[in-house]
Amino acid sequence: MLEKEDGLCQWPAQAVSYFTTYRVDGYEGGVVPAGPPVRIGHYEDTFRRVGDGNWLLASRTLHLPFGGPTPRANMPASQGS
Questions:
Q1: Which Gene3D superfamilies does the record cross-reference, listed alphabetically (predicted)?
Q2: How far is it, in rounded angstroms, from Cα 77 to Cα 81?
Q3: pTM check: above 0.70
Q4: What SS3 state is found at 76?
Q5: Pairs from 69-73 (Cβ < 8 Å, separation ≥ 24)
Q6: Domain ranges of the chain
Q7: Over its length of 81 residues, how does the chain's per-residue pLDDT go in tens digits?
Q8: Which three-class secondary structure state does DSSP give residue 77?
Q9: Which of 57, 53, 54, 23 has the alpha carbon at shortest distance from 43?
C-alpha cells in the first residue's frame, strides 16, 4: 500500500459483488411461487479515496453471463392460495 504524507492510501480499492435476481411480474397472491433466477452476475467496482478520507465509487462494471426475460404470472389474485 502506498501512503501519502497525510497517511491516506492513494491506490484505488477494488471489490467484486455477486448477485442473483429472482423476480416475477404481475403476481398478486401471497408468497411468490419459487422459480429459477432471472439474472446472475457480478459487479467489479473500483473506489477512490478523497481528501476527507472517505471512499467514493469511481467505476462499476457489470458482468451478466446469465440473463433472461422476467417471467409474468398470469394468475389473478382471486386464484392465489
A1: 3.10.450.50
A2: 9
A3: no
A4: coil
A5: 69/38, 70/23, 70/24, 70/25, 70/38, 71/23, 71/24, 71/25, 71/35, 71/38, 72/24, 72/25, 72/26, 73/24, 73/25, 73/26, 73/27, 73/28, 73/32, 73/33
A6: 13-79
A7: 455 555 666 678 999 999 998 887 877 778 877 778 889 999 999 999 888 889 999 999 999 998 877 777 764 444 443
A8: helix
A9: 57
